[in-house]
Design brief:
The chain has helices spanning 29-38, 50-57, 90-93, 105-112, 126-136, 154-171, 175-178, 182-194, 198-204, 206-213, 217-223, and strands spanning 2-6, 20-24, 43-46, 65-71, 74-75, 97-101, 117-121, 140-145, 233-237, 240-243. It is of the alpha/beta class. Strand 9 and strand 10 form a beta hairpin. It starts with a strand and ends with a strand. It has a 6-stranded mixed β-sheet. It has a 4-stranded parallel β-sheet with strand order 1-8-2-7, with helices on both faces. Helices cover 40% and strands 20% of the residues.
């Protein structure tokens, strides 16, 4: 097994596909997707374009859909929700399809959608993602962070490092054999430095600070909880995620 970490969607190789791709957007799309499916959502359908989201979701009965739109950390006009995982309670999302478009995470999913298998991960469901990879034993695993509008983000890379660190320790594979690029080693080092203070890292991250200015303190606390959910979102068809 070879792991590759890509800090942003733009760095994911074009015109290639890995056997397994893991899309990450800790703050907050993949945290929200995992939480919604864990709370009983029927599925989560992702869109990079908000107009396309509105068009497709119109085909669903209003009582069977929820529209979640976020740009710049705020809720998009005309949507039921923004991008807070704390809004995805069982009474709100149970039995419904969540149609979601976010600034960064949905673009990342779009970039890796052609992989043989696509899953999403965040800190909260790290173990579920690692368990899946160990069960499936894919030859190549691309771990793609969403970043922020094309730039590196601490929170996505520390999550990539958390996944890689767990795979390293649980398989006993030498780092030189597991790491397919230098970014894997850097991500593991970042996680090793901050694993006991992930909330602190999220507070240092530029997007974490952006969310703090929007008074999203509880979101950061929730998204920093390592292995708190045993749920794995997996792509059933391009852009459509279900609970495995």
């Amino acid at each position: 097994m070879k792991l590759f970490v890509f800090h942003t969607p733009e760095l994911v190789p074009a015109n290639q596909a890995s056997e397994c791709a893991i899309a990450i957007d800790v703050l907050r799309a993949t945290s929200t997707i995992a939480t919604a499916l864990n709370a009983g959502a029927e599925a989560v359908q992702v869109f990079s374009n908000i107009d396309k989201l509105m068009q497709v979701s119109e085909q669903w009965a209003p009582d069977k859909r929820l529209r979640a739109g976020e740009r710049g950390g705020g809720t998009v006009a005309g949507c039921d929700l923004g991008n807070s995982p704390l809004d995805c309670t069982p009474d709100r999302v149970g039995g419904k399809r969540l149609f979601i478009s976010t600034t960064n995470g949905t673009r990342c999913l779009e970039r890796v959608r052609d992989a043989k298998t696509v899953i999403t991960a965040a800190l909260i469901n790290r173990k579920a993602a690692v368990d899946f990879v160990l069960e499936q034993q894919p030859e190549t695993v691309w771990i793609a962070g969403s970043g922020w509008e094309g730039s590196f983000s601490l929170e996505d890379t520390v999550c990539a490092g958390a996944i890689a660190h767990s795979l390293l320790t649980r398989t006993g594979t030498p780092l030189s054999e597991l790491a397919g690029n230098d970014e894997v080693i850097a991500a593991i080092a970042l996680f090793a430095q901050w694993q006991d203070n992930l909330l602190g890292l999220l507070h240092h991250a530029s997007h974490g600070q952006r969310l703090l200015r929007l008074d999203c303190h509880e979101d950061l606390k929730y998204c920093a909880e390592l292995d708190s959910l045993d749920v794995l979102p997996i792509q059933k068809e391009p852009g459509l995620l279900v609970k495995r």
